[in-house]
Amino acid sequence: MQTTALISGHQLLEAFDEMSIKLNGLNNWALSQAFDELNHTYTMMLEYIRRGQNDPMNNKLYTQVIQQAHALNDRITRQERLNNPKYEPYKNKLQNLNPSVTLTNMFIALESYWEQKKRGFISDSQRDDQGRQHDTNLCNLFTLIWTSGAWSKSEAEQASELIYSDKIDPTDKALVISAVTLSVIEYFDERKLMLLFDAYLSSNDIVCQRALVGLLLSLIRHNDRLSDYSEVCSRLSLYCENPEFINNAYDIFSQLQNSLDTDKVNERMRNEIIPNILKSHNFRRTPIGFEEIDDMLMGKDEKLSFEEKKKRDENEDRLREQLTEMAQLQMDGADVYLNTFSHLKNTPFFSDIAHWFTPFSMDHPSVAHSKLATNSQLPKVLSLFLQAPVLCDSDKYSFCFILDTLPDNSQELMAKQLGMNIDQDDMNQLIEGGKAQKTKPSDISRAYIQDLFRFFNVFSGYTCSWNPFKTIKSFSPIRFSVLSELTHNSDALQKLGDLMMKKEQYEEARDIYLYLDPKEREDDIDLIQRLAFCCHKLMDTRSTEYYEMANRLRPNSVWTLTHYAQMAFALGDFDKAAQCYNNLLDIDPENVKYITRKARCHICLEEYDEALPLLFKAAYIDEANLNTLRSIAWCLIMQGDYAKAEEYLRKIGDEQHNYNDLLNLGHCLYAQGLIQEAFTAYRRGHELSQQNENGHNDFVTDFKRDYKTLRLQGKGNHTSMTLMLDAICDVPPVS
Predict the structure, then answer these.
(1) What pLDDT sits at residue 317?
(2) Residue 286: which H helix or E strand, with range?
(3) Cα–Cα separations (whole angstroms), residue 286 to 330, 415, 416, 424
(4) What percent of the chain has pLDDT over 90?
(5) Conformation bin of residue 358: beta by default, left when phi > 0, alpha when psi is -120 to 50
(6) Distance of CA 679 to CAs 645, 656, 663, Å?
(7) What are the b/e assignments for 617-630, b being 16+ CB within 10 Å?
C-alpha cells in the first residue's frame, strides 16, 4: 500500500514504517531529522493516551500530524525522484536556475516591462531585445514555480501580489497559473491550491479559466488526502454556492471527459478517414487538412465514361461524408488537430516547458517576424484563422512556424482550406469586425485542456509523475469525494451523464444516473430510460428493473418495450420478451420484425405450435424474408414434419443457401431415408462452412448437436450418424 494512502487512511504507524525504509536509502540528514521529530510527536500523543490523559486539543493536534506526515512524505518522494535518472531534466532545471531568479525579482521585472511598454518607453530598436528578455524572465519564473517545493507564507503572498497586480498583463498571469498547476499536481501544496482558488475570481477570463482547470485537476490529483485539509474543503463549499462556478466546473468536466477520446478520435482519423480521403485523386493533402480538386478544371472530367463518372461521384459523396464527419467531431469538441500539429512540437521553441502554455500573441518574439506578422500580402484568412476559436495556443505557434516553411504558392491553398474549417458565422464576424469577438470562457478552457493534453502526451523532454489523461478514466465528480459538493446540482450532473452516454461511455453514464437515484425521481421517465439503456449495454441485469419502471410510468412506449424485449431475450427470459412483443403487436399488428421476434421467443421455449402461426403470418406479409423460411423449416423439423420442412428449405434457393440451410436439408432427407441425397446436402454444407473462419469445427459441432435431436425423434442411430459424419468431412469417430 502506498505511503500516501496509508496516511490518508490514518494508518500512521504503518506509514511511518514505510517512510523510515525510504529514508534509509536516501541518506538525507534534514529529512531524517524531520521524520524523527514527527515520529516523536506522535509517540508522545500515544503515550498520553496510554496514561489516560484526555487532551481537548487532540483532534487539532492529530490533524496537524496527518498534514505534517503528508508534507514530509512529499519531500521524501521529491528527493527520490531527484535521485532517479528518469527525472534528470527536472533536476537540471532545478539546479541550473540562477539564484537571482526569485519571485520578488521576477515580479519587479514583469511590472517594469509592462509599465515601460504602456508608457511607450520601449523604442522600435529595443523591442526585440526587450521582448526576448521578457520571455526569458517568464520562462525562468515558470521554472522557479514549477520546480518549487511547498511555499512559505511569504512566497505565497508574493505570488498572490503578482496575480492581483494591475500592472502585469493577464497573459503573464495565465502562464504563472499554469506553472502553479504543474507544481501542485507534482507535489501537493495547500498554499498553491489556495492561490488557484483566488485566481479563479480574476476578472480576466484567461486567468479565471486556467485557474479553474488547474484547481479541478489538483483536487482530483490529491482527492484522497484533502479531507484532512478543512480550509480547502470549506473554500470549495463556499464556491459551490455560486451557480456560475458550478456551470464552469461542469463545462470543464465535460471537456476533460472529451479529451479522453482524443487518442481514439485521432486513431480513427489516421487509420480510416484520412487514408480513405487520400485514396481519392479528387482530394489532396494540405499542411492542415484537405482540398478538393475539381476534375473539370483539371481537364480530366471529359475523359471519363458515364459509368466511370457515376462511380467517381459515389466515391466522392462518401468522402465528403467523412470530411463532414471530421467537421462534426470538431464541433462536438473533439481535438481533431492533434495529429496535424503533434509532430511540429519538436522545434527549439518547445524545448522550454513554459512555451507549451504561453498564451498566443503575434507580439511574442518567436513569431513577431514571421510571415504572418510581416507580410501584408498574405491571404487575410490566415491571420483570421488564429483569431477563431479553432486551435489551442501551442498549435497557433506551430501554425506560424509551419507557414514560414511553405513556399508562397502554397499559401492560397492553405487559405482555401482554412476557410472551409472555420465556422461560417465566426468567419463573417471576423471579416466584418476585423478582429475576433471576445472568446467564450468554454472555448478558453477547451483550448487550454488541449495544451495540457499535448504537454502530457507529446512532450518527450519531461517525465511526469502523474498524467491525468492516462491515469483518470472518468472526470465525473461522483468519483472524487472532495468534489461531492458539486454533485448536488442534479441537472448539471445529468447533463454530464448524457454526454458520457452519447460517447458510449456507458459505465460512467450508468453510475451518474444511479447516483441521481431514479427511484426517488419516478417522474423523470427520460432518466429512467437512459439508465435502463446504459445497464442494457453493459449487460447489467438491473436494466430489466428500470425498463419495467419506465413501462409502468409511460405504458406502451415503443422504445421501452423494444429494448426491454431485447434485454429479456438476452438474459434468457423468453416469456417476458414474448410478453413485450405482444404489447408491441397490439400497437403495430403487421410489424414483421415484432412477429418474427415473438416467434423466436416461442422457439427458444420449444413452443413450436405457437411459433409456426406467427411465422406463417410473417412469411405472408414479407415473402422475400429468407430468415422466416429458415425458422419455419426448423419448427417443422422439431415437429417431425420433414417433408414439409424440406419444401421450405428448397424455397430458399440454391444460391441463397448457407451451410446451416444445407445441414438442415440433410437432416430432412436423412430422416426420410434418402441417405445419398442427404450426404450430398451435408457435403455441400460442409464445403460452404469452409468459407468461414473455424468453419469445419463449427459444422462438426452443429452436426453433433442436431443428430442428438434426430435420435430422440427415432431417426438414425449412433453408428449410422458417426459414419455419415466421417463420410462428409473425414473426422475421427464421434465418441
Answers:
(1) 64
(2) strand 283-286
(3) 18, 10, 10, 20
(4) 56
(5) beta
(6) 17, 19, 10
(7) bbbeebeebeebbb
With a CB cutoff of 8 Å and minimum separation 6, the contacts of 644 are 636
Residue with cell 436439408: 665
Task: Look at the chain and report how many structural domains it folds into.
Answer: 5
User: Does 106 share its domain with 221?
Assistant: yes
Q: Is 685 exposed, middle or buried (0-12, 13-18, 19+ CB in 10 A)?
A: buried
What is the residue range of 401's domain?
A: 344-437
Cβ within 8 Å of residue 75, ≥6 positions away? 31, 34, 149
Check whether residue 149 and residue 289 sit in a common domain.
no
Indicate whether 78 belongs to any domain: yes
Per the domain annotation, does 204 fall within a domain? Answer: yes
Interval 565-594 mean pLDDT: 96
Residues 6+ away with beta carbon under 8 Å from 102: 144
- What pLDDT, on a 0 to 100 scale, did the predictor assign at position 658? 87
Assess whether pLDDT exceeds 70 at residue 40: yes
Answer whether residue 607 shows pLDDT above 90.
Answer: yes
Across 86-100, 174-188, 270-284, least confident range = 270-284
Residue 599 in this model has a pLDDT that exceeds 80: yes
Residue 227 included in any domain: yes
Q: Which of 724, 726, 722 is nearest to 735 (CA)?
A: 722
* pLDDT score recorded for residue 91: 73
108 and 200 share one domain: yes
DSSP annotation of 466 reads -
User: Does residue 112 sit in the same domain as residue 223?
Assistant: yes
For residues 330 and 350, the model is more confident at 350
- How big is the chain by its Cα radius of gyration, in Å? 35
Max avg pLDDT among 273-277, 318-322, 395-399, 690-694: 395-399
The yes-or-no verdict on residue 595 having pLDDT over 50 is yes
| Residues 208-218: tens digit of each pLDDT | 999 999 999 99
- The sign of the torsion formed by the CA atoms of 22, 26, 32, 38 equals negative
Residues 47 and 169 in one domain: no
- Contact in structure between 547 and 567 (CB atoms under 8 Å): yes
**Within this chain, do residues 183 and 301 fall inside the same structural domain, yes or no?**
no
Residue whose C-alpha is closest to residue 535's, from 559, 513, 503 = 513
Q: Which of 28, 52, 83 is the last residue of a domain?
A: 83
Residues 279 and 349 in one domain: no
HSE-CB at 595 with a 13 A cutoff on CA atoms is 21
End-to-end CA distance of the chain: 53
Q: Which residue is it, cell 445419398?
A: 676
Which grid cell sits at 591? Answer: 410489424
Kindly list the distances between the CA atom of residue 143 and the CA atoms of 86, 183, 659, in Å, as whole numbers in the listed order: 18, 10, 69
